[in-house]
Specification:
Elements: H1 3-12, E1 17-21, H2 26-35, E2 41-45, H3 50-60, E3 65-70, H4 83-88, E4 90-92, H5 96-104, H6 111-116, H7 118-121, H8 124-133, H9 141-153, H10 159-170, H11 177-184, H12 188-199, H13 208-220, H14 233-244, H15 249-262, H16 265-268, H17 274-277, H18 284-299, H19 305-315, H20 325-342, H21 351-378, H22 386-412, H23 429-439, E5 444-449, H24 454-464, E6 470-478, H25 485-491, E7 498-500, E8 506-508, E9 511-512, H26 515-526, E10 531-535, H27 536-542, H28 546-553, E11 558-563, H29 566-572, H30 577-597, E12 602-606, E13 612-613, E14 629-635, E15 639-646, E16 651-655, E17 666-670, E18 685-686, H31 692-695, E19 696-704, E20 713-714, E21 717-720, E22 725-726, E23 730-737, E24 745-746, E25 748-755, E26 766-770, E27 781-787, E28 799-805, E29 811-819
Parallel strand pairs: 1-3, 1-4, 2-3, 5-11, 5-12, 10-11, 20-24, 22-29
Antiparallel strand pairs: 6-19, 7-8, 8-9, 12-19, 13-18, 14-15, 15-17, 16-17, 21-23, 23-27, 25-26, 25-28, 28-29
Helix pairs in contact: 8-9, 9-10, 18-19, 18-20, 19-20, 20-21, 20-22, 21-22, 21-24, 29-30
Length: about 850
């Protein structure tokens, strides 16, 4: 089937009568006419017998199909006896433009457009792409020109999508095949006109690079005095959508960095007030400037913590926030740390008061310090945050660690004082925490995380409460002293007596507690064989898949799971202790999930000991000069184990009996937070002493519940609606978070935008997190600014909607407004 025959066949699928004028090529066309084979179509040659033809097709055979061939040109209308047939039916032509129109189902009004861009139509794949966009009944030449551009670029027929594609091509100065094709097909004039209509772009020598410059200039023009924006409000909306485009973000960053260098943004932004920049994210230099200003404020004599936290929250969802996430987090933790430092009170009535104060409040300073250092490390450890880190380190060491250590040492007296704190003792863990489950014939899982100190346990508890149907409660527990792994692990096992051996190994009722295998034996003996000690790695294997795990756990009432992430880092890679703590949180949550999957409902999470940690290496002059004399069996930075021990000062001596341990050994504890001199071992991460950070460990009571009240839920958010009419292309609205974040009430992330009744977006869309923990209501308000596109003009005097959607895309809230904007833009159709 040749091309003409194929076109005619398509036409006859819709038409009954087709007229074909041969014109100047009548002889050749008649030959083509004779060659056409179309079943069920009557082929008739017209030889100036128009009346016969009209009678034939309208009266004699009114339902049959006819192909009428005229071996001459079509007469002028006033001399055309078959004009009514021409107007009522399809006139077939064989020039290229007409053939393409027939293929696309368009009428002759589109012929000038097709003729102008004929090169585009010469490829079948391009025509097929255009065909998929074509809606013959809806098209106008103006609208169709844009679809030809879209088919060339492989985008939706929207000026925004086409421009995104062209900008992406132009980035990195690379080849621009799409733009070159537009030039080849004479489509640049309609492109520039489409951009003029949509964004107000005009230039005597238009180019994609200049469009990009106009976009960036328009977004930042309010920051620069006497600078008029080159483009309209739609350009501002486009810029936001460009930044949100995951596939085109690299192009945005390339242009941003190019123009920042070309226009010396780094220089002029230095003179800009931070408040002016908070809602702008055009250039990376804006974030760098804001970060420096926040840092400088925190380093000043009169920092404004509330304002700085407000700055950080304003930047949370700006474009470069992800690049500088660690920096912003470090500053946020620094603010919380400094706030706690400013109200620090280390005056205690006695040791129980000190322990209670630490477990309720003071631990937060250790937690803030850990989180600051972690974020500081993630940010690169140098440069912008270095001076702040040095300030935090000085305050943490001198105003908190040393002072708390000294006051605690004074209140505690000696190790025997640990028994009088009114807090659960690690030595009684089995009898008081585990045995009650066995008495009730309930299965109990115990996760022992080596060196999970109290402050980390507090953060872990909070994270567990953020998981649906996870319930967790925290209490402090006093670790056995000296606070090192062997003794702490032994104290958590069932026993009557613990004996400290010269090599540091601890025996429980005459059995060594060293290693998982020995601990397994002790547990089985106490639980009539219905217990097991297992490493975290082996438990994950045993509990997977769930049905196998349920069979595996069936014989056991007690499961002790040992994890060694933090302490291992402290011994082998001191600088990564806080990073490994973060990993341990994830490991424990994974363990709890697996426990829940094998029908485990009751879990206790605890540790063998805590630790002291300072990020900055300890200076040689800061080590204790104490020298312990006697028969020394084991020596560490924080304690010495031996017999006949003595020292002039700087240590607290305790006999084994005073520590509720069997044997005739003695322990010398380094006072306060001091570290003894010792070659070959780490000094930043230490434990074994009597400090609160070493002695207090977490005991987390965890349950997986079926109560819907224990499901996490996002905080509620409402619009504070003061007006119901929109009268400007930019509107500022206030949103209220009805309750503070905490417990099961978690932050809520919403995508907020204005939409038409059909759901079509008519403004920029903003992603916002409502995460305030403030108890004061006014502090839980957020103001957002929305920019309307020119498409909003179509809904003048109609209702439009402010739509709030959650992260899954489900509608959360919706509010109606009446559109009453006085638009003053050029919306005329453009000429082609």
């Amino acid at each position: 089937m040749n091309k003409i025959e194929h076109s005619l066949k398509q036409i006859f699928d819709k038409e009954r009568i087709v007229l074909w004028y041969g014109g100047k090529e009548a002889v050749e066309m008649e030959s083509e006419f004779n060659a056409v084979v179309l079943p069920e179509v009557n082929k008739v040659k017209v030889e100036h017998d128009e009346f016969r033809i009209k009678y034939l097709v309208l009266r004699k055979a009114p339902k049959e199909k006819f192909l009428l061939f005229f071996p001459y040109a079509r007469p002028e209308n006033e001399h055309n006896w078959l004009l009514d047939l021409c107007l009522a039916n399809h006139v077939f032509t064989t020039d290229a433009s007409a053939m393409y129109l027939q293929e696309l189902g368009l009428d002759m009004a589109f012929k000038p457009l097709v003729s102008k861009h004929l090169a585009f139509f010469q490829a079948k794949d391009r025509r097929a792409a255009l065909q998929r966009l074509t809606r013959p009944a809806e098209e106008t030449p103006q609208r169709y020109a844009q679809k030809i551009i879209a088919a060339t670029l492989g985008t939706p027929p929207d000026a925004e999508a086409m421009l995104l594609e062209l900008l992406s091509e132009a980035a990195e100065g690379q080849e621009q095949p799409g733009f070159q094709d537009l030039e080849k097909y004479a489509l640049l004039p309609p492109l520039w006109e489409a951009l003029r209509r949509r964004f107000g772009y005009q230039h005597e020598s238009p180019s994609i690079l200049d469009v990009a410059k106009a976009l960036f200039q328009t977004e930042t023009s309010p920051l620069l005095e006497r600078e008029t924006p080159r483009l309209n409000n739609d350009a501002l909306v486009f810029m936001k959508r460009w930044k949100d485009s995951t596939s085109k973000k690299e192009a945005f960053e390339w242009f941003s960095r190019r123009f920042a260098e070309e226009w010396h943004v780094q220089d002029w932004v230095m003179d800009s007030p931070v408040q002016d920049l908070l809602d702008y994210d055009t250039y990376e230099a804006f974030d760098q400037h804001i970060l420096r200003k926040i840092r400088d404020n925190l380093l000043s004599d009169q920092p404004d913590y509330k304002k700085m936290l407000g700055y950080i929250n304003r930047r949370r969802f700006t474009y470069w926030a992800e690049t500088y996430e660690a920096h912003y987090k470090a500053l946020e933790h620094a603010i919380l740390f400094l706030q706690d430092q400013d109200k620090l009170d280390l005056h205690f009535d006695d040791a129980p008061d000190a322990a209670q104060r630490y477990s309720k409040q003071l631990y937060q300073i250790d937690m803030r310090y850990r989180n600051f250092i972690l974020s500081f490390q993630q940010a690169g450890e140098q440069g912008l945050l270095l001076e702040l880190q040095e300030k935090i380190e000085r305050l943490y060491t001198n105003r908190f660690l040393l002072r708390l250590g000294d006051r605690w040492q004074e209140a505690l007296g000696n190790a025997a004082g640990l028994k009088r704190l009114g807090i659960r003792q690690q030595r009684h863990f089995w009898k008081e925490a585990v045995q009650p489950f066995l008495d009730r014939d309930n299965r109990i899982f115990v996760i022992i995380s080596d060196a999970l100190r109290y402050e980390s346990g507090a953060e872990l508890t909070d994270r567990l409460m953020q998981v649906s149907r996870f319930e967790a409660n925290l209490e402090p527990m006093v670790a056995a002293a000296p606070t090192y792994t062997q003794l702490g692990m032994a104290a958590l096992l069932p026993h009557e007596k613990l004996e400290l051996k010269p090599d540091g190994v601890v025996w429980a009722d005459g059995v060594s507690t060293q290693g998982t295998r020995n601990r397994d034996k002790i547990l089985k003996q106490a639980a009539q064989g219905k217990a097991i000690a297992i490493t975290a790695a082996d438990f994950k294997k045993a509990a997977s898949p769930s049905h196998t795990g349920r069979k595996w756990v069936a014989p056991y009432q007690v499961v002790y799971i040992y994890s060694n992430t933090i302490d291992k880092a402290g011994e082998q890679e001191e600088e990564k202790v806080f990073r490994r703590t973060e990993e341990e949180f994830e490991h424990i949550i994974e363990l709890l999930t697996k426990i829940a999957n094998i029908n485990g409902n009751n879990v206790l999470i605890t540790a063998d000991h805590g630790y002291l940690y300072q990020y900055t290496p300890i200076a040689e002059s800061d080590f204790s000069n104490v020298k312990v004399q006697g028969d020394i069996h084991k020596q560490d930075r924080r304690f010495v184990l031996g017999q006949g021990l003595s020292a002039e000062k700087g240590v607290t001596l305790s006999a084994a009996a005073e520590l509720e341990l069997d044997g005739n050994l003695e322990v010398a504890f380094s006072n306060s937070v001091n570290r003894m001199r010792q070659s070959g071992s780490g000094s930043r991460y230490v434990h074994g002493g009597l400090s609160l950070q070493e002695c207090l460990v977490p005991l987390i009571h965890f349950k997986k519940t079926r109560n819907k009240a224990d499901e996490i839920r996002g905080v509620d958010v409402e619009l504070i609606k003061t007006v119901s009419r929109i009268t400007t292309y930019q509107v500022v609205l206030s949103f209220y978070q009805t309750q503070p974040v905490g417990g099961k009430a978690r932050p809520r992330t919403l995508r907020i935008s204005f939409v038409a009744p059909s759901g079509k977006l008519i403004s920029d869309a903003q992603q916002v997190v409502f995460s305030s923990t403030a108890t004061e209501e006014r502090l839980r308000e957020q103001k957002l600014t929305f920019q309307f596109t020119q498409e909003a003009e179509q809904f003048q005097n109609q209702e439009v909607y402010l739509r709030m959607e959650d992260e899954s895309g489900s509608r959360y809230q919706e509010y109606a407004f009446t559109m009453l904007i006085a638009f003053d833009k050029d919306f005329d159709e453009f000429d082609l």
